[in-house]
Amino acid sequence: MARTYYKLKTIWLMLMLAVGPTIALAQHTAEITVNLAKEKAPMTPVWAWFGYDEPNYTYMKDGKKLLTELAALSPTPVYVRTHSLLVTGDGIAALKWGSTNAYTEDAKGNPVYDWHLIDSIFDTYVNRGIKPLAQIGFMPQALSTHPDPYRHHWKPGDPYDDIMTGWAYPPKDYNKWRELIYQWVKHSVARYGQKEVESWYWEVWNEPNYYWKGTQKEFFKLYDYAADGLKKALPTAKIGGLDIAGTSGKGAQQFLNAFIKHCIADTNYATGQIGSPLELITFHAKGQPRLIKGMVQMNAAPQLTDIATGFRIVASYPETRNLPVIIGESDPEGCAACGMATNPSNAYRNGTMYSSYTAATFARKYELGDQYGTNFAGAVSWSFEFENQPWFYGFRDLATNGVDKPVLNVFRMFGKMRGSRVEATSNRMYSLKAVMDSSVSGELTDIGVLASKDKKSAAVMVWNYHDDDKAGPAEPVALSINGIPSATVVLTHYRIDNEHSNSYEVWKKMGSPQNPTSAQIAELEKAGGLQTLGKPQKRKTQKNTLLVNFSLPRQGVSLIQISW
Questions:
Q1: Could you please report the per-residue DSSP string of 224-268?
Q2: Do 218 and 170 meet the contact criterion of CB atoms below 8 Å apart?
Q3: What family does the entry list (predicted)?
Q4: Which conformational region is residue 193 in: left (phi greater than 0), alpha (psi within -120 to 50 degrees), or beta?
Q5: CA 346 – CA 102 distance, rounded (Å)
Q6: DSSP 170
Q7: What is the C-alpha end-to-end distance of the chain, expressed in Å?
């Protein structure tokens, strides 16, 4: 239905062009209205959550640099989630692999705890004001029921299942598993203080409908013993799960419902009592890009459907409807470490398509949170950086070799949106239903809006997004900001497009060097920052209204910030 509507609208526009271009272009203009007097809900920084597979990148050179930037862009603490915090190994990072060697056993089978690598990871976070979404997993080799083979050597292009080795199995001794978690949390409290650790979130495992070689009941047992160990070390710690994959799938829905019911009413495997601690709910949401005749075509519909399904399930239980909901991975597709050389449909990642997709989908995440009335706390963008890899290889990352990519600047824009979300409409914005039905696949692009207001400032994000990765003309935008409580404002216009906030385009103009000079790196770092269109302007309002007209390129994002 949505596709038919937009095709008919395009035909109508062509007829208008035949009659008179002035009339047609006037109808084609994106007319956006923002009313600062109508507050909708708090501008919760649900975007300020990030994650990655490889924990050892955290304390490496470019990892530290990026984490410093992430901490700086948010008005509230950023949360970070990473895999493999309990995996056995030498601490050397590789794609989809990491280790801390936190747990081994001596010749007699007695536990040996070593926290120095986990400390290196969490120290990096805490020293920057970042909070861990601490993932309890995966299984140490000495505890695994199938310890060999353990270390995998996956690389892009290899079968994805090759990573499923001994770390994915249940523990041979659940009491030792519980004691490991107890000792970890006890150590964290001693190192960082009770108040700090109380501000973290803890979760057990990741995608147990995929990254788990045990049964569903064995996973519930794993959860119960982990939660019991955590609560014995710190009763006020917050724990939950289960970061299910493919949330809208029938099997995933069954698993998520069973998990919630287990935590509410089943006998706890660790304590023998009824119920298990559950203080947050997590699940995953992924889109599905594809390659059509050499062109990348995005698809946000599966990602938003996953989110709607998870929100609906959480809201259906009185015991969970008010719990914090964290989308543990929320991305355009599934594999961050699969570059565009082996997965051509991932070629969207370096340029502005990734940034405009991110703006357009986060606005719909807010809409879904409003629709289901959930306590929507965060959506983890599973994208970080890959240390010592080729420049702009097409990983799903925020920076390459220490140089920020365009997508990171969307998060910098979000960081300037504070206070409350306010009413904002656009005649060119696809409805939530249309995007969930067929993404943004009509003839017209999605020129959408998200707006916020604080005590002495307001911010309006506008994007020009389409699923198809092809060139298109810049389109006129007529923005009206109403309800401004001042006769004058200072207007700053931030922009992401091919000419602004875009290190990738600058790199290509250099000839795409894989060994850029220090001068070139400095130029790329400058291009990777958030840039403005011109200088800030002092503007007068008319009857508490400000009119702003500009053109927005296809896949471009603007942030209009006003202060008074």
A1: HHHHHHHHHH-TT-EEEEEEESSTTSHHHHHHHHHHHHHHHHSBP
A2: yes
A3: Belongs to the glycosyl hydrolase 39 family.
A4: left
A5: 35
A6: P
A7: 44
The residue written with tokens 């949106």 in the block is 417
How far apart CA 491 and CA 456 sit, in angstroms, is 12
CATH class of the domain at 44-414: alpha beta
How remote is the C-alpha of 493 from its chain's centroid? 25
The model's pLDDT over 125-152, given as tens digits with 9 standing for 90+, comes to 999 999 999 999 999 999 999 999 999 9
Asked whether the domain spanning 44-414 has the same topology as the one spanning 2-41+418-563, the reply is no
Burial (CB < 10 A; 0-12, 13-18, 19+), residue 42, is: exposed
Torsion of CA 388, 126, 202, 178, to 10 degrees: 90
54 in active site: no
User: Could you read off the pLDDT of 194-235 as tens digits, one per residue?
Assistant: 999 999 999 999 999 999 999 999 999 999 999 999 999 999
CB 564 within 8 A of CB 457: yes
Q: What is the C-alpha to C-alpha distance for residues 231 and 4, in angstroms, rounded to an integer?
A: 55
Report how far residue 228's alpha carbon sits from residue 210's, in angstroms, rounded to the nearest whole number.
24
Whether 285 contacts 244, CB under 8 Å: no
Domain 2-41+418-563 has CATH 2.60.40.1500: yes
Count the neighbouring beta carbons within 10 Å of the beta carbon of residue 313.
22
Chain-centroid distance of CA 315 in Å reads: 22
Number of neighbours of residue 275 by Cβ within 10 angstroms: 15
Helices (H), 266-422: 301-315, 352-372, 406-414
- Closest Cα to residue 467, out of 289, 286, 285? 289
- Of 217, 330, 344, which is closest to residue 292 (Cα–Cα)? 344
DSSP 20-53: -HHHHHHHHSEEEEEEEEEEEEE---TT-EEEES
- DSSP 3-state helix, strand, coil percentages of the chain (rounded to 5)? 35, 25, 40
Secondary structure of 406-463 as H, E, C letters? HHHHHHHHHCCCCCEEEEEEECCCCCHHHHHHHCCCCCCCEEEEEEEECCCEEEEEEE
pLDDT tens digits, one per residue of 239-254: 999 999 999 999 999 9
Catalytic choice (207, 218, 329, 333): 207
Residues in the chain: 564
Query: Which residues does residue 381 pair with via DSSP β-bridges, in sequence order?
Result: 50
